[in-house]
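Appendix B, Record 12. Input sequence as logged:
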Amino acid sequence: MKTVELQDIKRRYNIVGNCDALNRALDVAIQVASTDLSVLIEGESGVGKEIIPRVIHDLSPRHHERYFAINCGSIPEGTIDSELFGHEKGAFTGAVGESEGYFGVANKGTIFLDEVGELPMATQARLLRVLETGEYIRVGGQSIRKTDVRIVAATNVNVRKAISEGRFREDLYYRLNTIPIQMPPLRDRGNDIVLLFRLFAMQMAEKYRLPRIELTDGAKLMLMKYKWPGNIRQLKHITEQMSVLCRERTVDEDALKKFIPVDPESTMLAPLSSGDSHSYESERELLYKILYDLKGNVSDLRRELNGLRDKLDNASAMPQQMQGYSELPQGYVPNMQQSQQFAPSTPQMEYAEVEEVKEPEVLNITDVRRALLQKALDRNGGNRKKAAAELGISDRTLYRQIKQYGLNEN
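Logged structural output:
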C-alpha cells in the first residue's frame, strides 16, 4: 500500500505510530475490507484492537449498514445466546416478548466480537453454524433463520492453548482465523510510545486548558524502556495523571519515577524465553509447584502428629479415678459411659485418634485447581486481574472459578 494512503487512514481514525507491525496490521485490514472473509485480531489487552474492525467495516461494501461491537466477556453466560441470536416469547423467565438478537438486527452489516475466547462452548457451536451456513435458531425457537453478517473477532488470550485445554473449538478457530491480524504490544513499538504520550498530553491540555507537559530526553528513554503491561490504555492513564499532578510542565526522570514502577522487572524490555529460565507463566510449572507445596504440607502434618504421639508416650500420670481398673473381669463388656471411663487404661485405644497421615499417592485434580487458584490470589494480594494474568486465563474465567470452588479472596 502507498504511504500516502496509509497516512490518510491514520489521520481519519486518529491512529498514532509508524512502527512496521502497526503498519502491517493496517495494511491487511485495508486489503481484506472489500471481501466478506472472517478476520481474527489477536493482541494483548489495551493495544487498540477495536480500531481494526471499524476500519474494515467503513472501507467495505457494507459501510452503509449497521455495525455492532460486542464484548463477549461482559455478557453473562446464561444470557449470551439470547443476546446474540435472539429468543422467542416465553423461552425463559423474563422473556416477555420476542428478540431479534444481534445477528438478526445486524443483517447485511458487520459484527465485531471482542474477547471471543470467552464464549461458552455451546455458544461457539451456534457461532460456527452462522459462519458456515448463515443459519441460526433463536433461543426457545424451532424455525431456522438466515442472516448475512460479516464477522470480525478479537481475543487477548492464547487461543491455541485454549484449544488444547478444551475451552475453545478448533474448527471455530480456523473458521474465524481466515485472515489473521496481529496487533503489536506497546513495548515493541519504540518511538511510537513518545508520539502517543504527546497526543494524550495535548488532548488533556486542550480539554482542561492546562499547559502541556513535555518530557526530557532521559524521561523519554525511560518511557520507552518500560514494559507497559497495560499497553496504550495504561500510557493514557499515566499521561492524564501527570498532566494534572505535575507542577513542573517539563517532566524529568525523577518526576516520571513517581508515576511508573522503577523495579528492574518492570522497566526492562520483555526478555525472550529460554530453556534455563524459570517462568510461572507455564501452567505445568505452576502445577508442579503446587504439588510440591502440598507435599511439604503433608510432611509437616505428619511430623506434628508424630510429636503429639511422643507426648502421649511420655505421659507419666494417669487420672486418679482410673487407678485399679487396669485389669477388667473376664467377659466384661462395658457400656458407653464405662468405656469412656476405662479408655485411658486400654493401651490399644490410646492412639485410636492419632494415626499416621500417609502422603497421598494421587491428588484430586479439582483440589489441585482450587489450590492453584488460591495460591495465585494469595501471591497477588487478592488482585483478580494480576492473578488471572499469572494463570493465563481471563478475569471472567477466574471469577467464575472463584465462585465454583468457593474461594476466599484476601
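The beta strands are 39-42, 67-71, 110-114, 135-136, 145-146, 150-155, 179-182, 214-215, 250-251.
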